[in-house]
Specification:
501 residues, alpha/beta, 13 helices, 13 strands, 25% helix, binds alpha-D-glucopyranose
Length: 501
Amino acid sequence: MKNLVSVGVSIIGVSAPTPTPTPNYPRAQLQRTRNGLWEAIQRVSSSVMSGIKRGDRTCPQPLCHTCSMRVIDEDRFGRSAWWRHDRFGMFIHWGAYAVPARGEWVRSAERMSVEDYQYAIDAFRPEPDFDAWAEVAASAGMRYAILTAKHHDGYALFDSALSDYTTAKVLGRDFVAEFLAAFRKRGIKVGLYFSLIDWSRPDFPHHADLHHPMRGAVPDHVPDLDSYRQFLHGQVRELCSGYGPLDILWFDFSYEGMGPQQWGADEIVRIVRELQPDAIMDNRMEGDGANPGSILTATPSPWAGDFASPEQIIPTQGVIGYDGSPVPWESCMTLNNHWGYCASDTVWKPASMVVHKLVECVAKGGNLLTNVGPDARGRIPTGSAKVLDQVGTWMDDNCESIRGCGPAGLPKPDWGWWTAGHGKLYAHVFEAPVGPLPLIGLRPDQVKLVRRLADGSEVPMAQCWTVSDRNDLAFLSMGPQPEFSYPLPDEIDTVFEITLA
Ligand code: GLC
C-alpha cells in the first residue's frame, strides 16, 4: 500500500507549511521524523547528490524523510539526479524572429503569413560566438543550457534532411551543432528545445488552430496530421541521432485540440528513449506552462515527462504530486518580458531578483531556468549579460548553498529562505534584521557552528538583553554589538552556513 507523504513536514517541532491537497486525493499525512534534524540533513546530500537507485525506496526529495514506503518513478528521479543537483540553467530563445525583434510569437501575434515572414529568414545572417555565450552561462553559475533547435515559426537551427527551412540549408550553418560543441567544451550540460508546433508546414492545422498565424483566415485549408506527425517524428529522430548525447529534450507545447494524440507522443517517447536513454524530458507533450499534465498524478502517462515546467511563475508550494509526493520541477523565467529578442523590451529583472528566485526554487525543491534572447547578430543583449554577471558574482561566493541543496523542512523565515544540503543548513538573508537574526526553527543547543559562506568566517550567536526572554530560539549576532543593527555584508543575499550540533 502506498504511504502518502508531504514535503512540508516538521523536523524539530514546528510545522512547516503543508501542501494544499486536491479534493480528489486523500490528504497527505504528516509524519514526524524519528531521528531529528541531523539525520534529515544528511539525507539531503546523499539523496540529491546521488539521486535514487532502482530498488531504493528512499525518497529523493531533499528532506522528505518520512516516506520510506512511497512508490515513486525511480527512472525519472535517477535520470534527473544531476539536474536536480545543478539547479540553475540557461534557456536560449534564438531564431529568425530576432529580426522583427518583437518576440518569438511575432508571426502569431501579428497574423503574419509564412510568405510575409520570409524577409526575416533572408535577413537572419548572424555571426554568433557560441564560446562567448557559454562563458556567460558558466560565469553565472549555470550548469546546463537549452537552445531552441526549432521554435513555432518552424525555421530550424539544425540540419534536416526533411526540410529546406533550416539555417543549414539557407546559411550553411548548423547552429545546433555549433552550440553543442561550444557548451560541451565549457563543461555545460546541453539540451534542445523543440517546438511540437510548426507554423511553416502546410500540413499543420491553420484555420481552426488556436494559435496559428492564419487562424480563422483560411477556411479552405485542409490539415494533414498524418503527414505532419511523420515529419515531426523524423526531425526528432534527426536531433536524437545526429548530435551525440543530449542531456535534456524540451518539447513545447500542448493546447486545446493539439496534444499527445496529435503529436504521436508515444512514438516521440519511443524514439527518445531508444536513441537518448539518459536524456530528461519536460512535460509539455501533454501540458504547457500552466498545465502540468499527468506528471502530478499517481498514474502518469508514458509521455508525462521527467519534470514539470511552470512558466513565469514559482508555484507557491513548489511542485508536488496530488498525493503530496515529490515531483522534479523547473520554473522557466525570462530576464525581461520576452523569450525571443525584443528590441523595445529593456525591463530587465535585477540580479537580486534572479538570485532570490533561484534561492526560492531551491528552497522549494526545484530548479530555475533563466532565459536569454540573443539578437539578430547573434549577441546576448548587454542588459541580460550584465544581470547574469552580477548573479555570477553572488554564485562564486555562495553556489554551495544552491547546488546539491533543497528544502530544509523548516518554516519560511521573514528574512529570506532556508536551503539545506551537504549536511548543512543555509540561511539566505535578504533583509537585515533589527538587532540579532532569529534562526527560526532552531534552538540554541542545536547549533554547533555558524559561518558566513562567502568567506568562511565564524558568526557568533547573540547573547544580549533584547533576546534574553527567548531561550528556545537561536539568534545570530549581526555585528560586534549584538543588540545593534547592521547592514548585510552582501545586500543581495548574505548566506550563513550552519553546522548542527
Ligand atoms: C511558451 C511559448 C514559448 C516559449 C516557452 C518557454 O510555451 O510558446 O514561446 O518558448 O513557453 O517556456
